[in-house]
């Protein structure tokens, strides 16, 4: 096992298999068999032609377009996104109280935000409310590398400018708690939070940010893109500048790790291991939280 399976420009066999599983049999049951066959060949061709130049979320976006063009199916998650935003908003005040009572408020808030990374339809296809509530409820006990966590907290205390790349709906409520705690200990920090420019799976957009009040605690910008990761060549100039010019970049989620790792020491990647590939490479069980330092 090697990190190269995740960060390589060429998708690994397990990533390819995962993408095909999500799309190859997505045709409606009542579609003509010739249409189904043509669609399946197009899926295979899209994956084969792009698997050495595109990330998995980019290919996923191409396949969503193919699905819509072939069958008129647009797999939106608006209802689900609103549900999880509201679900986690309902926990917010209780969690704020728990943070205030914690011996390490910032560390606890970070753990909560990582637990929220569980909300990921792209990885799991569905998100169980009960499992999310369990992970959030037990977040204070989440085992992390304490040295890396202490290093990240110190960087948060000292940074003058911070770019915070969000991931999923619902999760951004917990990101808001992290940002609030950063500002409690570093009130002069200028924090720019970055969301997706257009709907991409269940990733947070500006609409979600406004729904959960993220825009009331920091500056929020969108990256101008509709792919469920952060590809420097695709995002808008404002996003590239925010990432380039910040003292500290905090990046949530697996997809952002895949596209942004190896691009600078001022970046910290926070995510849950949500698939077997990540669990095997990092040697941890599923739903383990990880903080990974950026590398040059």
Q: Could you characterize what this model shows?
A:
With 296 residues, the protein is α/β, with parallel strands linked by helices. The protein has 2 domains: 68 residues, no CATH class; 216 residues, Uncharacterised protein PF01937, DUF89, domain 3 (Rossmann fold). The chain contains 14 helices and 6 strands. The longest helix is centred in the first third of the chain and has 24 residues. The radius of gyration is 19 Å and the shape is globular. 40% of the residues are buried.
Kindly summarize this structure in a few lines.
This protein has 296 residues and is α/β, with parallel strands linked by helices.
Write the layout of secondary structure elements.
Layout lengths: L3 H4 L5 H11 L9 H18 L5 H16 L6 H24 L3 H11 L5 H4 L4 H9 L8 H13 L2 E5 L5 H15 L4 E6 L10 H7 L6 E4 L14 H9 L2 E5 L1 H7 L6 E6 L3 H7 L6 E5 L3
Parallel strand pairs: 1-2, 1-4, 2-3, 4-5
Antiparallel strand pairs: 5-6
């Amino acid at each position: 096992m090697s990190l190269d399976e995740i960060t390589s420009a060429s998708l690994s066999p397990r990533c390819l298999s995962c993408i095909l599983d999500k799309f190859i049999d997505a045709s409606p049951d009542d579609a003509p068999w010739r249409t189904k066959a043509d669609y399946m060949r197009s899926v295979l061709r899209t994956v084969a032609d792009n698997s050495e130049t595109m990330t998995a979320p980019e290919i996923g976006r191409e396949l969503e377009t193919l699905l819509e063009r072939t069958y008129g199916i647009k797999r939106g998650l608006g209802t689900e996104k609103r549900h999880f935003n509201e679900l986690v908003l309902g926990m917010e005040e209780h969690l704020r109280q728990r943070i205030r009572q914690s011996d390490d408020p910032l560390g606890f808030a970070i753990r909560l935000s990582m637990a929220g990374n569980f909300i990921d339809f792209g990885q799991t296809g569905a998100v169980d409310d009960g499992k999310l509530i369990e992970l959030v409820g037990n977040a204070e006990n989440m085992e992390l590398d304490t040295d890396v966590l202490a290093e990240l907290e110190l960087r948060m205390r000292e940074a003058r400018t911070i770019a915070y790349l969000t991931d999923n709906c619902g999760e951004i409520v917990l990101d808001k708690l992290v940002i609030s705690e950063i500002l409690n200990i570093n009130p002069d920090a200028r924090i720019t939070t970055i969301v997706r420019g257009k709907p991409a799976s269940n990733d947070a957009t500006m609409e979600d940010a406004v729904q959960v009040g993220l825009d009331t605690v920091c500056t929020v910008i969108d990256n101008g893109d509709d792919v469920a990761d952060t590809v420097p060549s695709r995002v808008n100039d404002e996003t590239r500048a925010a990432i380039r010019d910040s003292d500290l970049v905090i990046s949530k989620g697996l997809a952002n790790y895949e596209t942004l790792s190896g691009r600078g020491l001022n970046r910290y990647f926070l995510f849950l291991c949500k698939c077997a590939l990540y669990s095997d490479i990092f040697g941890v069980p599923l739903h383990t939280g990880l903080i990974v330092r950026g590398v040059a």
